[in-house]
Write a structure and sequence with these properties.
The chain is mainly α and about 500 residues long. The chain contains 24 helices and 2 strands. The termini are far apart. The relative contact order is 0.19.
Length: about 500
């Protein structure tokens, strides 16, 4: 007892991580939910972290939530063929056929084991990389960050969508929304005389309106077919799944490496790493006895290897440079900024407690959620079969409460009005296939882009020279990023509607 009193913070951290694992695991089990919606709903509880050092505890809770949700994603995809997030769709391709063959436990144990083990291994790689941030930051000034932002937009508009032109329009829309309110010189713009908009549009309203509400409206009509899953020989199949990961360990490591590398690239979130790992797995394993898409365990191991590794990879550009890799990281970035952290600024990397909470939440959250889901997979799977009409209303209410509670309560009706507007915008963008992640990330990054442009104009382009300015030779990272971005956009526009869609 005396030891516990002396180390009470350890008990406190353990409780917070367990709570995050529980919350994320439940949301992850819900069909079509995924880490993105779990992150949006965190706005509903962030204000209730009213204890000393609440902001650090919230970081711990949020990252444990995300990794647990990512692992739980595979349940719905394997058992009913309706994945939670975008990455889980790759697991579904071979996981669902295995479940229909009576080998659900085999598929789930392989997916959970691979995602957990690779998440821990590549999490250690992230721990190794982060201390070198100081060395990296020496080469990352205003021009380099600006170049990375441009590269992020080009990657998002070409790789993650099948229509580059529409994605560029979505980016423009996001930038316009981000410009609403006071600029850096305290000039009022785009508010239409409405005092409510002077501080800009709240991130929770934009995120909930673009993603959560439109999805819930669609899910109200969702009637997925539930196949009776056979859990006979559950323990035997579980061990077979674990051993399968060991047997194909090099395939898992390859998938983990792909997910980690893709995650690092700015603007490449949304399951691209999972699908890339799956494609690599298929290409390296020709003439299989069991075809891919018909229940080949290698397909599950390959893509699940990149599951949590992509989450760690995506965190690095988010916290180091303030450039989120996709909608999930944009929401997390907004959450952490909401509780007082300057994500993307040099100072955040010097906050050792923030980094420790982030890494501890990721590592322990991954380990605990993996063990819990592996041991209780048979019982947790029962959540999958709850009809959407029962779980959809509570989730929708939680999102609406997140919108209301994130601002002053005297703006409730204005908040709801803005949520309605952005829900309509989100529904239209979804229907006509405009990239909503592009719009959200552009909205988040607008202030950084605006500041960078003013700094570039004042420091480097003050003489009026643009193309023949020495900044292009003095800062080669910016030059390379801009050239790659131009090439990607030209390629994307010329091949629109022909690209593979991963999201």
């Amino acid at each position: 007892m005396e030891w516990l009193l002396q180390h009470h913070y350890i008990v406190q951290y353990a409780i917070i991580i367990l709570a995050g694992v529980l919350y994320g695991g439940i949301v992850g089990l819900i069909p079509c939910a995924g880490p993105g919606k779990a992150a949006i709903m965190l706005f509903a509880i962030v204000n209730y972290f009213d204890v000393p050092d609440a902001n650090y505890l919230f970081v711990l809770f949020s990252i444990a939530t995300i990794v647990s949700c990512a692992i739980g994603d595979s349940f719905a995809g394997v058992l009913i063929g309706v994945p939670g997030g975008g990455g889980a769709a790759a697991t579904m391709v071979d996981g669902y056929p295995l479940a229909k063959q009576g080998r659900a436990s085999y598929a789930l144990s392989a997916a959970i084991t691979c995602s957990t083990v690779m998440g821990l291994l590549y999490g250690l790689l992230g721990i190794i990389v982060i201390p070198y941030y100081e060395n990296i930051s020496q080469y990352m000034g205003v021009p380099e960050i600006f170049g990375l932002v441009i590269l992020a937009f080009s990657l998002m508009s070409t790789i993650t969508t099948n229509n580059t032109f529409k994605s560029l329009l979505a980016i423009g829309c996001g930038l316009y929304i981000g410009s609403i309110g006071f600029d850096i010189f305290d000039n009022n713009r785009h508010t239409f005389g409405w005092e409510y908009l002077e501080d800009g549009v709240p991130i929770v309203i934009v995120a909930a309106g673009l993603f959560a509400i439109p999805e819930f409206l669609v899910l109200m009509k969702l009637n997925y077919h539930v196949t009776k899953i056979n859990f006979d020989n559950h323990n035997k199949q579980t061990w077979e799944g674990i051993l399968a990961v060991w047997k194909h360990k090099w395939l898992a490591l390859m998938g983990g490496g792909i997910g980690w590398i893709v995650g690092i690239l700015p603007g490449t979130g949304g399951g691209i790493g999972d699908w890339s790992a799956y494609a690599a797995t298929v290409s390296l394993n020709k003439n299989e006895k069991i075809p891919f898409g018909k229940g080949n365990i290698k397909g599950i191991i390959g893509c699940e290897g990149s599951n949590n590794t992509g989450k760690m990879g995506g965190l690095l550009p988010t916290i180091m440079f303030g450039i989120p890799s996709g909608k999930l990281y944009a929401i997390l970035m907004a959450l952490w900024m909401y509780v007082g952290f300057d994500v993307g600024e040099f100072s955040i990397m010097e906050d050792t407690r923030f980094i420790n909470c982030l890494l501890s939440g990721y590592m322990w959250g991954t380990l605990i959620s993996g063990i819990v889901m592996l041991v209780f997979a048979r019982h947790l799977s029962k959540v999958i079969y709850i009809p959407a009409k029962y779980w959809m209303p509570p989730m929708m209410i939680t999102v609406i409460w997140a919108v209301i509670s994130s601002r002053h309560y005297n703006t409730v009706w204005e908040d709801l009005f803005m949520l309605s507007i952005f829900s309509v915008i989100g529904f239209i963008m979804k229907k006509y296939e405009f990239s909503r992640p592009c719009a959200l990330v552009a909205f988040i990054l607008f202030k950084r882009i605006e500041t960078s442009m003013y700094q570039l104009d004042g420091i480097y382009f003050s003489d009026g020279k643009i193309l023949n300015n020495p900044v292009w030779t003095q800062h080669p990272i910016m030059t390379i990023c801009v050239l790659i971005a131009i090439c990607l956009i030209i390629y994307g526009i010329s091949t629109s509607n022909k690209n593979m869609v991963y999201t």
